């Protein structure tokens, strides 16, 4: 009977998540990337030159800076997460456990960052709207009908012109938006991979320290 209980306990302890390590890693990632983003914005404003070439150079430099700097920061964050993993009852390999904890820490950090960004943007928009209402001057204007029946289309102002987007321009805009989306995806993917790799190295370092002691 005792053997059955021991076997069941071993199977129940075969997969455990150290949420303290995950939460600590996510908070650490949020803090260091917050400071890193402020540094990025400050350097960008200092190095920016008001020209077309300067704007293009700023975009490329910002992408490389964010990619490399974010990778290093999340690699270190993952390493700290791996060092804090509790493996006393775990039967899972260190690579799987480290990668899982690193990915969970990165995902929690991403949720925190997106929530903070949404909150900050809403606060900024509310403040901007309040300032605009204080400075706006009320002017009399004619009321504009929101919808015009099809029978009244001939009553439109003949001087009114409607500009349609050129298909080539629309294609270029769509292609540029796709490139930007792929760049953002690549940055996020590299961050997740860095956190997973760092967590694996951190867990390996922790187990080596335990083996030595």
**How much of the polypeptide forms β-strand, as a percent range?**
under 5%
- How would a textbook summarize the main sheet? none
Terminal Cα separation, in Å?
A: 35 Å
Low-confidence stretches: 4-13, 137-148
Gyration radius, in Å:
27 Å
Average pLDDT, to the nearest integer?
76
Helix percent band: over 70%
- What string gives the helices and strands in order? HHHHH
How many individual helices? 5
Shape: elongated
Q: Which structural class do you get from the secondary structure elements? A: mainly alpha
What is the number of beta strands?
0
Annotation keywords:
single chain, 213 residues, mainly alpha, 5 helices, elongated
Describe this structure in words.
With 213 residues, the chain is mostly helical. It has a domain of 149 residues. It is 75% helix and 0% strand. The protein is built from five helices and no strands. Helix 3 crosses helix 4, helix 3 packs parallel to helix 5 and helix 4 packs across helix 5. It is elongated, with a radius of gyration of 27 Å. About 10% of the residues have low confidence.
Task: Produce the secondary structure layout.
Layout: H1 2-12, H2 19-47, H3 52-83, H4 94-135, H5 167-212
Summarize the structure.
With 213 residues, the chain is mainly α. The chain is built from five helices and no strands. The chain has a domain at 18-118 and 165-212.
């Amino acid at each position: 009977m005792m053997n059955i209980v021991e076997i069941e306990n071993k199977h129940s302890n075969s997969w455990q998540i150290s949420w303290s390590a995950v939460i600590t890693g996510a908070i650490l990632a949020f803090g260091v990337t917050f400071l890193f983003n402020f540094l990025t914005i400050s350097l960008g404003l200092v190095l920016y030159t008001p020209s077309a070439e300067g704007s293009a150079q700023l975009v490329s430099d910002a992408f490389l800076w964010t990619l490399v700097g974010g990778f290093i920061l999340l690699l270190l964050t993952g390493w700290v997460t791996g060092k804090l993993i509790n493996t006393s009852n775990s039967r899972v390999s260190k690579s799987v456990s480290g990668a899982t904890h690193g990915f969970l820490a990165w995902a929690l950090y991403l949720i925190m960052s997106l929530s903070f960004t949404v909150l900050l943007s809403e606060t900024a928009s509310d403040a901007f709207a309040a300032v605009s209402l204080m400075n706006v001057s009320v002017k009399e204007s004619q009321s504009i009908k929101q919808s015009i029946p099809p029978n009244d289309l001939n009553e439109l102002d003949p001087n009114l012109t409607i500009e349609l987007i050129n298909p080539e321009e629309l294609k270029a805009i769509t292609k540029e938006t796709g490139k930007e989306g792929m760049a953002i995806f690549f940055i996020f993917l590299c961050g997740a991979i860095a956190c997973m790799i760092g967590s694996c190295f951190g867990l390996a370092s922790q187990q080596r320290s335990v083996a030595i002691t």
